[in-house]
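# nightly structure sweep
# worker-07 picked up a monomer target from the shared queue
# config: single-sequence mode, recycle default, output format = structure tokens
# input follows
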Amino acid sequence: MKKLLICFAILFGFTSSSLSQLDHTAYAQQKPTPSYAKWSKIAIAKTKEKYPNAQVVDYLYVGRTNGPRTSTEKFKLWLKENQKEFGVYVDIEFTKETEQVVNVTYTETAR
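# output follows
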């Protein structure tokens, strides 16, 4: 009887950990990290520096433009400061070769 209980315990422990790993692996395969993830973190951090009293409510990845030496990642962030909500377009220009940030521009919008 003890052997049977030990077998069940080992089998149950193995099965639940295996299922957990399978679930995690399947989830990781379904949700790959987007190529712009690094730049979205920079966009949010730079926006918080420029608007220190505002909260970032939401953000949207707009897209990328490519030039001969630099590329620009574009985002729209929605901010809330006191009772005011507004949008800010954030463009991050960086060198293609080194991915060093060259320029960050902000354009406020009411919508």
